[in-house]
Amino acid sequence: MPPPLTTTPSRHRRISARLVVESLLVFGGLELLALTLVNDGESLAAQIGLPLTIVALGCWFHRLYTNAHEAIHKMLFPQHLWLNDLVGQILLLPLLIPLPVYRKIHAFHHGHNRRNHETSTLDGYVVKPGPGRLKRASVYGLWYVGVFFGGYFLHGLVSIILFLCLPQRVARSISPAFKGWRLLDQLRSWLAFGLGGLLHVSVALAWGVEAWAVMFGFPFLVFAWLYSLLVYIYHYRTSYGPEVRFNVRLNSTDLMLGSPGVKDDLQLEAPKFYEFHKRAPSYWE
After folding, report:
1. Which whole-number Å values give the CA distances from 171 to 168, 180, 211, in the listed order?
2. What integer is the mean pLDDT of 67-80?
3. CA–CA separation, 80 vs 97, rounded Å?
4. CA-CA distance, 26 to 188, in Å (whole number)?
5. DSSP reduced 3-state for 208
């Protein structure tokens, strides 16, 4: 195993600053290009360039999301946490994601990822012994929707709504993910969500709904599709068990997509965690 990478605080700040500036500049450039093309009407350049720009924007939304991932781990600007959180939230505004909610959900993910068959596993399905054809078909359907039709994104969207709207006592009774979630966190999240909504509404009012659709609406659909697909890839054929740090995909050469199958056997692969050897979706009886 190679030694861990090290860097000085000043170099870390320069790398982070370059990452953020590059992300925001390219994002602004793509948004300007989308606005220009949508105002160009029925020209050939608009007909060809606009769909490509929408796809590029959707992919760049994911770039903003992954940049903000560093912020929720307090690693973007670790020496200045107020700046870290401010920049992270700015990156998330176009996505309407409050940083406190993202941080809380992701912390639960890291603490409980695939701990067992029922906890923090989107591509696993627990069924009663002897599932019939209808049950198997429904599991396959859910898996296809989750991976290829933005279903995992919708799962995250519902989580955000619950964090924003549920009273504290009700939320904590639903899931341990809400443990430690405070009213102050909820209020800050509403503020961030409101600022993101204001950005979207301002674009629609300034340039029209059609412009908003090509600058944010349709790219958001691309982002939802890409996000869901990557969530599956990140966890493809990873292990389950209490040693949650093992339950991740680390080797990029293993990021292979597979068609769904039935996982009906468990094999002990290493101490304290299990490895499945068949492809998703998963059934446990």
Report:
1. 5, 11, 37
2. 92
3. 22
4. 28
5. coil
Place of tokens 């700015």: 90
Say how far apart CA 119 and CA 13 lie, in whole Å.
Answer: 36
Domain contains 2: no
Residue count of the chain, please give it. Answer: 285
Q: How confident is the model at residue 275 (pLDDT cuts 50, 70, 90)?
A: very low
Angle 233-114-274 from CA coordinates, rounded to 5°? 95
Report the distance separating Cα 228 and Cα 248, nearest Å.
16
Residue span of the structural domain in which 201 resides: 9-284
Name the residue type at position 14.
Answer: R
Whether 214 and 91 have beta carbons less than 8 Å apart is answered as no
User: Considering the domain boundaries, does residue 228 fall inside one?
Assistant: yes
Count: domains in the chain? 1
Handedness of CA 245, 87, 216, 36 (dihedral sign): negative
Q: Is residue 248 part of a domain?
A: yes
Give whichever of 49-63, 151-165, 255-269 has the largest mean pLDDT. 49-63
DSSP sequence for 98-158: -HHHHHHHHHHHHHHTTSSSSSS-TTEEE--SS--HHHHHHHHHHHHHHHHSSHHHHHHHH
Contacts of 109 (CB under 8 A, 6+ apart): 120
Question: Is 182 part of a structural domain of the chain?
Answer: yes
CA dihedral for 274, 279, 284, 285, sign (positive or negative): negative
